[in-house]
């Protein structure tokens, strides 16, 4: 996907506000929980930690993973981060890893500044320095959360900002961690930010 195509798609996901497109264009994007018929392999992506060292998904095999892709200019993404920050230690106790991957062009500096502004403490800095993750993962809108099983395969994804702290999300994450089939009644409700965080 070219940078222009990604920006257009991201603009549509943000209600077209980014590119001045009509709001009805945003309704063409499928949002919510998408459960795959069969687990999908996840391509290798170059994830870096706060020190610029490799921190890819290979090191997380054996654990279920909620991989959230976000950017600082995406209001729903930023609104979702505090809930993901609170979820991380709760999920870790159940052997589920929460990874928030910044797709910002500013890399570490932008992620650090956003985390500081929001008071994010539990989430680790993870960046896509190569700016290739969105294309490799087939992501055209933000935020998106990929749900990976213990073998590192994508079993589902959630498009949009979800209520990750509710009981429904807990059931979903526990099912992913246990390798149980996912069902539609495990779909967490969408969260729509009303103000900028």
From TrEMBL:
Keyword Isomerase: yes
Signal peptide bounds: 1-25
GO CC terms: cell envelope
InterPro entries per record: Redoxin (IPR013740), TAT_signal (IPR006311), Thioredoxin-like_sf (IPR036249), Thioredoxin_domain (IPR013766), Thioredoxin_ResA/DsbE_sf (IPR050553)
Localization per Swiss-Prot or TrEMBL: Cell envelope
GO biological-process terms attached to the record: cytochrome complex assembly
Main localization of the protein described in the UniProt heading: other
Record keyword Isomerase present: yes
Classification via CDD domains: TlpA_like_family
UniProt keyword list: Cytochrome c-type biogenesis, Disulfide bond, Isomerase, Redox-active center, Signal
Pfam families: Redoxin (PF08534)
Thioredoxin domain ranges (all copies): 36-178
GO molecular function terms listed in the Swiss-Prot or TrEMBL record: isomerase activity; oxidoreductase activity
Protein name in UniProt: Thiol-disulfide isomerase
Species of the source: Paramagnetospirillum marisnigri
Organism lineage: Bacteria, Pseudomonadati, Pseudomonadota, Alphaproteobacteria, Rhodospirillales
């Amino acid at each position: 996907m070219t940078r222009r195509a990604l920006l257009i798609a991201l603009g549509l996901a943000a209600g077209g506000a980014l590119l001045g497109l009509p709001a009805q264009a945003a309704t063409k994007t499928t949002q919510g929980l998408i459960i795959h018929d069969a687990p999908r392999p996840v391509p290798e992506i170059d994830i870096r930690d706060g020190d610029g060292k490799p921190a890819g998904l290979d090191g997380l095999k054996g654990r279920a993973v909620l991989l959230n892709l976000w950017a600082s200019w995406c209001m729903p993404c930023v609104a979702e981060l505090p809930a993901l920050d609170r979820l991380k230690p709760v999920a870790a106790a159940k052997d589920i890893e929460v990874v928030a991957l910044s797709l910002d062009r500013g890399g570490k500096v932008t992620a650090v500044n956003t985390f500081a502004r929001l008071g994010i403490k539990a989430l680790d800095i993870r960046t896509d320095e190569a700016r290739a993750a969105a294309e490799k993962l087939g992501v055209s809108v933000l935020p998106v959360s990929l749900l990976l099983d213990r073998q590192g395969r994508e079993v589902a994804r959630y498009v949009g900002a979800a209520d990750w702290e509710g009981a429904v999300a807990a059931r979903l994450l526990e099912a992913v961690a246990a390798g149980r089939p996912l069902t539609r009644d495990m779909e967490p409700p969408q969260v729509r930010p009303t103000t900028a965080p």
